[in-house]
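Notes from the 1:1 (GR / supervisor)

We went over the backlog. Supervisor wanted to see one worked example end to end before approving the batch request, so GR pasted a single chain during the call. The sequence is below; no edits were made to it. Supervisor asked that the structure be written out right there so they could see what the output format looks like.
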Amino acid sequence: MDLLTVEHVVKQYARHKALDDVSLTIPRGSVYGLLGPNGAGKTTLIRIINRITAPDSGRVLFGDREIRPADVLRIGYLPEERGLYKKMKVGEQAIFFARLKGLSRREAVERLKQWFVKFGIEGWWDKKVEELSKGMAQKVQFIVTVLHEPELLIFDEPFSGFDPINANLLKEEIMALRDKGATIIFSTHNMASVEEICDHITLIDKSHNILSGRVDDIRRRHGSNIFEVAFRGEEDALRRAIEGRCEILEGAPEESAYRTLRLQVENDGEVRSVIAAVNEAVELRSFREIIPSMNDIFIRAVAGTL
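Structure output shown during the call:
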């Protein structure tokens, strides 16, 4: 069952149309990547889902009904532009935000203490926010976003400013939340992170949804039938064997004792015959398809060359 459905949403700001007939469906229990260049409309869509602003037309469904004001308590939102009250103590501020999400003070303190220990910031409970490093402040904001265990979590560039160790810690926690049943919208420009943690994506460009689907399906669908062959033997013999069957692409790096070449096969039906021909001509070590990265697909889609 789907947790969130966006149907034909339009949003206009003066002379700028931020969203133009955008629709998408987010499956329950998935990590859903919301991608697009700056100014594409991602933040506007997130603000509409959070009921910070309303669409001019279209609607957002939470489960099987239109989203309501009370549903905001079932959402955790970590915006890209973060902010904490610098003069407050860290613990008291975290409790304040937890109470806004409906937790009692006792429950908030109990959960916060556990998260602070997990993130290694328990010693900062009574410090003022202004004493925190940027990374520590981001950890606090992540904690207060997930503390009330919402059904839907929205993270806008959550790894921004983190070193690799803490980014990996955050990534592991996001995946753990998914495994516990949370549905996650993940807005980012980091395509490597998309490939690692996202199940589905939507790419928005110039206010339109231009690409949606499962990450693996999209990568395979937009492949170009390019394969890398690792072999031992005479390259000339290999070239003669596959002449007329496929195109040889130069520039593949050498792999230890084996040489490598990249081939582009015209259609799927020719792949088996190419493998057989290579195997007859040289000692075949491996034959693997080169699947395009999400970064490649992103660039091609935005450039209109996909």
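Supervisor's comment: The first strand starts at residue 2 and ends at 13.
Batch request approved.
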